[in-house]
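Trying the structure run again after the queue cleared.
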Amino acid sequence: MTGAELLAGALPSIRALMVIGIVLLEAVTLYVGYGAIEGAVGPTVLDRLADTR
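Done. Tokens:
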């Protein structure tokens, strides 16, 4: 469910714009979220990989 079903009676172009907006919002959220996880966990993982060599 993307939320586009909330506008069941809307014009197709409005629904298409809504889906595009939702996809962009999801992409930004994932980009920021994965960036935060990488920043928090990345150095530890890289240090452990460097120690095993």
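The first helix runs from residue 12 to 51. Worth checking whether this holds up in the mutant runs.
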